[in-house]
Design brief:
The protein has 123 residues and is α+β, with helices and mostly antiparallel strands. The chain has two domains: 35 residues; 69 residues, no CATH class. Helices cover 27% and strands 32% of the residues. The protein contains one helix and seven strands, in the order αβββββββ. The strands form two sheets. Strands 1-2-3-4 form a four-stranded antiparallel sheet, with no helix packed on it. A hairpin with a 2-residue loop joins β1 and β2. The protein is rod-shaped and about 90 Å long.
Length: 123
């Protein structure tokens, strides 16, 4: 009877060990997916998007109310870049955190802002 008890105890402890390992892997996998991607070559670039896709947005030059914005693919390659004009009613400068999306030509904030090849003159 002692041998059978030891086998049952061994089986029980092994199953607890396997379950613990599975839970740890599940937690690690979930933690990694919740962390937004980062571009180490562009530490100020923020990820805008979700798990199924998005872009990195970086404000490279800020000469309020004009801002030079760089949009980068997930691998860091430049997708689009150019000047935008942003005048906020509250007087706060534009930050990459205020950008909610990019539609190929327009940045989405509270409204769409077009990227132009040159800095806007006397507007």
């Amino acid at each position: 009877m002692g041998g059978r008890t030891l086998r049952l105890l061994n089986g029980f402890l092994c199953s607890i060990g396997v379950l613990t390992i599975l839970v740890l892997f599940a937690l690690l996998f979930t933690w990694q997916r919740d962390t937004p991607p980062k571009l180490f070559a562009h530490p100020n670039a923020l990820w805008v998007g979700a798990e199924d896709g998005g872009v990195f947005v970086e404000i490279a030059k800020a000469e309020a109310p004009d801002y030079y914005v760089e949009i980068r693919h997930e691998n860091g390659d430049i997708w689009a870049e150019g000047w935008i004009r942003y005048d906020s009613k509250d007087g706060f400068p534009l930050s990459a955190a205020a950008i909610t999306g990019f539609g190929g030509e327009a940045l989405y904030l509270q409204t769409s802002v077009m990227i132009t090849p040159e800095k806007a003159g006397g507007r």
